[in-house]
Amino acid sequence: MSPMFRALSIRNYRLWASGAIVSNTGTWMQRVAQDWLVLTQLTDNSGVAVGITTALQFAPVLLLAPWIGALTDRLDRRKILITTQITSAVLGLVLGLLVISGLAELWMVYLLAAGLGVVAAVDGPARQAFVSELVPVEYLPNAVGLNSASFNAGRLLGPGIAGLLINWLGTGPVFLINGFSFIAVVFSLTHMNRDELRLQERPGRGNRSARAGLVYARSHPEIALIMCIVGMVAMLGLNTQITTALMARTEFGKGAGEYGLLGSVMAIGSLGGALLAARRERPTVKLVIGAAAAFGVSSIVSALMPTYWTFALMLIPSGLAALTMLTAANATVQLATTPAMRGRVMALYMAITMGGTPIGSPIIGWIGEEFGARWTILVGGMGTLLAVGMALLWLSRSATLREAVKASDTRPLMTVTKTSDRAAATGTPEAAAVARQTATRTSGATENSAA
Fold first, then answer.
1. What would the pLDDT profile of 224-249 be if each residue is shown by its tens digit?
2. Where is this region: Disordered (predicted)?
3. What is the pTM of this model?
4. Which of 39-62 are b and which e, b meaning 16 or more Cβ less than 10 Å from the residue's Cβ?
5. Which range marks the domain in which residue 157 is found?
């Protein structure tokens, strides 16, 4: 099998990927339909209302994810995911029935968006960490890249299909289709061979708290750097569900079909970035920084495009850069974290990356109403470049960070020892220092023996 698809040689991963592509397509259909419902049917082109809806859907991730991550490290992640998929299906079906019956009001959409946010807070860390149970560690970067490819294949198909269905049938049926799409993931999860799963290492008694994930991330400065960059970009630059809706509706005077097409065009670049990530043997911190810079520049250029079609074309490099940054960041954080801590560290990662959205989306929506749609993208691009500049300044001034980044980019997979993890989780500065020294010594010893 081609190295790009080697994770698919694992039966359980094939089941997971096949269910995910169906569900991801349905999820993107719902996102487009939800934003269009709020923007055109329940309000008079209110960017703030769309921003509030988005914020409610992502705020629970910011508030709950660290505690959910601790739970994820203790419980069966497969069972957690089955529960979240069923709950998401119910919420999607309820919204669809409300819209079709003509009973839907803005506050109902807000309430259901918040409900989806709570489910996402549980689902996200479990989903991220579950991939490591499906494949060997040497396949993990490939599996993360293919996961992103699946997500963005759904993003490529979903908005276009949603735009057509909204024109033909309205938004209600789109929500119903998304509700039924979760059946595919539940089927894949229930038909896996559980004996072939690589079950996670359970945390020790003194290493079970949500705080342990924060301490672990702080003791690994390369992880902290990645989270700072991606968090800033997510808050200001990755609000495409708002920015493309406003650009299509208010700047270019387009309808639902053209809005959905913008999402599909951007997904072309995102899918390309995901496939490139799947070919990459290992991600690096430098790649995260470089991709973030490329995203900032391409976002600013896209905001200056004079026509609908030139704007649409510029979304391709934006999607490529954004997805390269996100997949590299995701895989780097996972590979720098041992299995017993992965649920909590990934929960913290999700809280920062997804939690930035409820902070930034109302601001971006307000900017769109006050200054115009183009400024929503310009502010995101400039904010992204500011984050990159701050990261480079941090790197230039911190020798400890430079050493950690160099070690992360060069050491063999998973060389951080259990001893260093236990020390990092105790919470004292001395323990954190021991953790870093142990990890560095282990990395150096492994590299020397390999040479």
1. 889 889 888 888 888 777 788 888 88
2. 418-451
3. 0.65
4. bbebeeebbbbbbbbbbbbbbbbb
5. 11-198+207-442
